[in-house]
Specification:
350 residues, alpha/beta, Aspartate Aminotransferase, domain 2, Aspartate Aminotransferase, domain 1, seven-stranded mixed sheet, four-stranded antiparallel sheet, 12 helices, PyrdxlP-dep_Trfase, EC 2.6.1.9, aminotransferase
């Protein structure tokens, strides 16, 4: 049975979070002389001289409307990477505890583990890019605190079998982190709706992909109120800047536009896959639930080098286990995809 108190680091349990000026006074006033800000304003067209809402409450309320989740179950971070780092700092004792990752997968899980001096146990995905449940079960010990699952997975693009993730949630006494950065492009429904079923579930999402706000660095974590409280205790006091909060809030009013873009991206993805299949140096194109495709080629390094010389940049995943010979290609606009195909046609004719 999962018990949150048994996996929180002792120093985090007793941590008294920093109390900022905006934590201590949350109302409206005519004169603010409490936070040592520059009362004269900013040398910009928009004033940014006041500290932002430390909890980004307005953004959370709008996300609550869109996602159907109470604001108290939402954490906002500087990208999902901040949430990943907080998970390590909150639940993993350096040099003692371990986490499980399932390569090939998003590289920041391993980077954050290394930064926080936490052992990594790698249980590779199967040849079909699905979970090796038996291998994961054998790897779990009393010091295993987190299991990271990216679904749809990066770099493979496929969704992980839902039943397998539910098996882990039901049987693992640590936290299962389901990273849904690409969920907007997926046929699989989000795990957010399962938060009331599983106390050990943390779902990560982002505004960087479908929402087109990568430069703002706004990531989301959805979890039980108790886990979110731990996140808020550990995070820096003003972790989401005012510009990002304002622009994110503005963007979140445009759900219909984003949904139309998603449809267009999926249409372009299908067209791109069909075009790539015509090249004899393309060995396989793996099924994708994301805004990118993983393409197995006869010469990934050579094709990558050639495309770079043409000013077209894709991601070379050739050196990653289970992705040998593969290029990861983001679905671009119609014009960008055509530029890629036309360049590959020239390569074929050379």
């Amino acid at each position: 049975m999962f018990e949150l108190n048994t996996i929180i680091r002792p120093n985090i349990k007793s941590l008294k979070p920093y109390s900022s000026a905006r934590d201590e006074f949350k109302g409206e006033a005519s004169v603010y002389l409490d936070a040592n800000e520059n009362a004269f304003g900013s040398p910009l067209s928009t004033n940014y001289h006041r500290y932002p809402d430390p909890m980004a409450y307005a953004v959370k309320m709008r996300l609550s409307e869109i996602k159907g989740v109470p604001a108290r179950n939402i954490f906002l971070g500087n990208g999902s990477d901040e949430a990943i780092d907080i998970l390590f700092r909150s639940f993993c004792n350096p040099g003692v505890d371990n986490v499980i990752i399932v390569p090939p997968t998003y590289g920041m899980y391993e980077v954050s583990a290394n930064i926080n001096d936490v052992e990594i146990k790698r249980i590779n995905l199967t040849e079909e890019y699905q979970l090796n449940l038996e291998g994961i079960a054998e790897a779990i010990d009393k010091n295993t605190k987190l299991i990271f699952i990216c679904s749809p997975n990066n770099p493979t693009g496929n969704s992980i079998n839902r039943e397998d993730i539910e098996t882990l949630l039901a049987n693992f006494n640590g936290i299962v982190v389901v990273d849904e950065a690409y969920i907007n492009f997926s046929r699989q429904k989000t795990f957010i709706q399962e938060l009331t079923e599983y106390a050990n579930l943390v779902v990560l999402q982002t505004l960087s992909k479908a929402w087109g706000l990568a430069a703002l660095r706004v990531g989301m974590a959805f979890a039980s109120e108790e886990i979110i409280e731990v996140f808020n205790r550990v995070k820096p006091p003003y972790n989401i800047n005012e510009a990002s909060q304002q622009l994110a809030l503005e963007a979140l009013q445009n759900v219909e536009k984003i949904n139309n873009w998603i449809k267009e991206i999926l249409k372009e993805r299908d067209t791109l896959v069909l075009a790539l299949k015509s090249f004899d140096f393309v060995i396989d194109i793996y099924p994708s639930d994301a805004n990118f495709i993983l393409v197995k080629t006869a010469d990934a390094d050579g094709i990558y080098k050639y495309l770079t010389e043409q000013g077209i940049i894709v991601r070379n995943r050739n050196k990653i286990k289970l992705c040998e010979g593969c290029l990861r290609i983001t679905v671009g606009t119609f014009e960008e995809n055509q530029a890629l195909i036309n360049s590959l046609k020239k390569l074929k004719n050379d």
